[in-house]
Design brief:
cell membrane; alpha+beta; 2 domains; disordered N terminus; 7-stranded mixed sheet; about 35% helix; globular; Transferase(Phosphotransferase), domain 1; 9 strands; two-stranded antiparallel ribbon
C-alpha cells in the first residue's frame, strides 16, 4: 500500500493516528499481519507503541464522504462502549486514505468457528453464549445509543469472539461511513446476500427490524450449523426458506430432529433450544412489523 499524502490530524475525542504510526504498528501493513479483507477494505493486526494490540481497517478509497462527515461518524462510533461491541480506538485520515483502529479481539469470528473447515464442533453452551452476547450488543445499538445505530450488515463474520467465546459485534457504523453521499441511490448494496431482510429488496431501506431479520438468520446458523447460502451443496431454498417449516414443526410438536445441527449429537438443553428456535422464528417473520425488537430477543 503506497503511503498517501501526509496525514492530517483532526482534534476531537477519539485518537487520531498518522499514516506512519499505523504503518509502523502493522510492520508496513505486512501480509503476515493481514487478518482479513471484505467489502470495506483490508484489516491488519498491529501493536501500538504502548503495547496495545489493535486491528487496523483500511477503508477502500472512493467513499463519497467528505472529511467532516467522516469525522462526525467516527465521533459517534467512538463514543459507543459496551462489553459486547468492539470498541473503536482511533482513526487516520491521510490524503484520500481513511483508516479505523479497533481493539483487537483474539479468537476469530463466529463464522470461522461454526463453518471453518476442520474446526471442532461448537458445543451448545458456546452457541447460546454467542447468541445472547450479540443480542445484547445489538439491543444496545438500537435502543441505548443516541443517535441510534442500525448495523446494516449483521452476519457471522461480523461477530468476533474472545477466548471465552463471548461475542462482540464488529463493524457497526461502517455502513454509514461507506455510503456515497453524492448520489440519491446508494451505489453499494448494503448488507450481505443470505442475511438481507425481504423488505430491503422492495424499499432499499434498512431499519432496526432488518437487523433483527439478519440476527434471526444468524440464530438459524447456530441452531442448524448450516450457512445462509451454501455454494458447496445444491440447496433449492435459502436457509431461511428451508428452515421455516421445520421451525413451525419444532414449535408445534417440540420435535427438533432435522432442524438441529446433527454434529451436536443431541447434546443440548431442550428448554434453551426451544427459546432459541422461538426467537429465530419470530425474528425472520416476513413482516418487519411483526418481528420483535432486539431488547425482547435479548431476554433469550
Amino acid at each position: 500500500m503506497p503511503p498517501p499524502s501526509p496525514g492530517i490530524t483532526l482534534g476531537f475525542n477519539s485518537n487520531s493516528f498518522t499514516y506512519d504510526e499505523l504503518a509502523m504498528a502493522t510492520n508496513g501493513f505486512a501480509q503476515a499481519n493481514l487478518l482479513g479483507q471484505g467489502g470495506f477494505g483490508y484489516v491488519h493486526k498491529g501493536v501500538l507503541p504502548n503495547g496495545k494490540v489493535v486491528a487496523v481497517k483500511s477503508l477502500k478509497s472512493g467513499s463519497g464522504q467528505g472529511e467532516r462527515e467522516f469525522q462526525a461518524e467516527v465521533e459517534i462510533i467512538s463514543r459507543v462502549h459496551h462489553r459486547h461491541l468492539v470498541s473503536l480506538v482511533g482513526y487516520c485520515i491521510s490524503g484520500g486514505q481513511r483508516m479505523l483502529v479497533y481493539e483487537f479481539v483474539p479468537n476469530n469470528t463466529m463464522e470461522y468457528h461454526l463453518h471453518g473447515q476442520g474446526r471442532p464442533v461448537m458445543d451448545w453452551e458456546s452457541r447460546l453464549r454467542i447468541a445472547i452476547g450479540s443480542a445484547k450488543g445489538l439491543a444496545y445499538l438500537h435502543e441505548d445509543c443516541h443517535p441510534r445505530i442500525i448495523h446494516r450488515d449483521i452476519k457471522a463474520a461480523n461477530i468476533l469472539l474472545d477466548n471465552n467465546f463471548e461475542a462482540m459485534v464488529a463493524d457497526f457504523g461502517l455502513a454509514k461511513l461507506s455510503e456515497d453521499n453524492n448520489t440519491h441511490v446508494s451505489t453499494r448494496v448494503m448488507g450481505t446476500f443470505g442475511y438481507l431482510a425481504p423488505e430491503y429488496a422492495s424499499s432499499g431501506k434498512l431499519t432496526e427490524k432488518s437487523d433483527v431479520f439478519s440476527f434471526g438468520i444468524m440464530l438459524l446458523e447456530l441452531i442448524t450449523g448450516k450457512r445462509p447460502v451454501d455454494s458447496n451443496i445444491v440447496m433449492e431454498d435459502s436457509l431461511v426458506d428451508w428452515a421455516r417449516p421445520l421451525l413451525t414443526r419444532a414449535l408445534d410438536e417440540g420435535n427438533y430432529d432435522g432442524l438441529v445441527d446433527a454434529c451436536m449429537e443431541g447434546n443440548y438443553n431442550r428448554q434453551e433450544m426451544a427459546r432459541m428456535v422461538a426467537c429465530a422464528s419470530a425474528s425472520i417473520r416476513h413482516s418487519a412489523r411483526k418481528r420483535p425488537k432486539m431488547s425482547q430477543v435479548r431476554k433469550l
